[in-house]
Amino acid sequence: xxxxxxxxxxxxxxxxxxxxxxxxxxxxxxxxxxxxxxxxxxxxxxxxxxxxxxxxxxxxxxxxxxxxxxxxxxxxxxxxxxxxxxxxxxxxxxxxxxxxxxxxxxxxxxxxxxxxxxxxxxxxxxxxxxxxxxxxxxxxxxxxxxxxxxxxxxxxxxxxxxxxxxxxxxxxxxxxxxxxxxxxxxxxxxxxxxxxxxxxxxxxxxxxxxxxxxxxxxxxxxxxxxxxxxxxxxxxxxxxxxxxxxxxxxxxxxxxxxxxxxxxxxxxxxxxxxxxxxxxxxxxxxxxxxxxxxxxxxxxxxxxxxxxxxxxxxxxxxxxxxxxxxxxxxxxxxxxxxxxxxxxxxxxxxxxxxxxxxxxxxxxxxxxxxxxxxxxxxxxxxxxxxxxxxxxxxxxxxxxxxxxxxxxxxxxxxxxxxxxxxxxxxxxxxxxxxxxxxxxxxxxxxxxxxxxx
Length: 453
Description:
This protein is mainly alpha-helical. The protein has helices at 18-22, 27-31, 33-64, 67-92, 97-120, 127-154, 160-189, 191-201, 203-210, 229-240, 243-258, 265-271, 276-296, 307-335, 350-381, 384-415, 420-439, 441-444.
């Protein structure tokens, strides 16, 4: 993503061998044992979380045979997640961030445990799954908010890009392994046992958080003075005068709103690409595999200074890859003969499935590059006394934005066709990035060597 200008390299960057400089920088794991333990515990827990993300969608689709019903899982979670982001940010700027992360982890674990129980009891009403998924998503948002605000306190600033890349690898592994296992587990053992695996794996998160030192927020001009409306308005006042931080949220909202075709995966697996649950797992895992591979070769990202420009280019690439996935669905549907139904699904169309996976892998790689730079800008530029609330807003965008995108995709697929959300949404992203490049000139010049909010 660098412009190629030698001045774009981070000052003091070491000259290493070509291969060494290309691979991910693991210095954060070596230099901060606290970060290493947190990273390992979160990595294990995230694999289980991704099992449930896929399993809930498949479960609701099996109960309703409706793509829109799958999208409603996102709608039910959206409101609680938005409130949790703001509340979690205020908590992280008021109380010990370690305790905030621990308490919200307990709530998330109870939610997935309850979902496991009702699945074993054979509950077929969809609303309990919607409600528990919402509780789980809200508590995970608060937990992630506290975790994100902790990282700049246990790592030096120059290692934040490497830490963001490692977190990208963590999520890449989770959303590669988790969905792939989910498809196999659901097909082989059923939904309840799949949820149970998540409940067991989630206990690793407690180990990582318990090992952290106390991380109390610093007091400053933007310090939180409570958990109510005043804390939110204070953070919004800061954001109004922080154009670079604000841009990270706006750019990501564009990508997540118009580039989330995942709710069509169950129907695509049955009606277009074939393969049902295993295909859904493969499509979801392909996106994650792209993110993982880009993380493994993320060494050069730590030397990029024009990080705003890199965010813009990465999201532009994301839109192109998303649109290509839509083209695959459109062409495959157009050339098929015969009619498939959820009860009589189509056999796997291997060429189309492979092309769809390649397109989604490209989208995942682009999304990960964008996430590395957006995370770094936020953590480096936001002062500590408002960092929790900015992380809360970050998680609202990162976790809530895709749910708005799920609703958009579900509605568009219901009105037009399965290919429409990806193709139309991807083209909208490309057009908006061209506009944003011209409108947000200052963001394009953001310099990592002198971070300014």
